[in-house]
């Protein structure tokens, strides 16, 4: 899992920036994809450092040390 360094709000989703191999990369997600991962899109945008990304699997998760705060019920 990679640390998320920034998130940009787009009309139909978000653009997630993360560090990998000494550089920065981005990957886009629709809002439906974010919801399907049980991630709060607003919190992801406001607190990107609270989340981790697995870019190859296209998966975002709350950081384990902060996960209790991010559980969607």
Please write out the topology.
Layout: E1 2-9, E2 13-20, E3 23-30, H1 31-36, H2 41-46, E4 51-54, E5 59-62
Antiparallel strand pairs: 1-2, 1-4, 2-3, 4-5
Binned strand content: 35-45%
Give the rounded overall mean pLDDT. 90
Distance between the termini: 24 Å
H/E element sequence: EEEHHEE
Level of helix content? 10-25%
Number of domains: 1
Structural class: alpha+beta
Strands side by side in the biggest sheet: 3-2-1-4-5
Poorly predicted regions are: none
Quick recap:
With 73 residues, the protein is of the alpha+beta class. The chain is built from two helices and five strands. The mean pLDDT is 90.
Task: Describe, in plain words, how this protein is organized in 3D.
- By secondary structure, the protein is of the alpha+beta class.
- The chain has one domain (2-68).
- It is 16% helix and 44% strand.
- The chain is built from two helices and five strands.
- It has helices at 31-36, 41-46; strands spanning 2-9, 13-20, 23-30, 51-54, 59-62.
- The chain has a five-stranded antiparallel sheet.
- It is globular, with a radius of gyration of 11 Å.
- The relative contact order is 0.23.
Short key terms for the protein model shown above:
about 70 residues, 5-stranded antiparallel beta sheet, alpha+beta, 2 helices
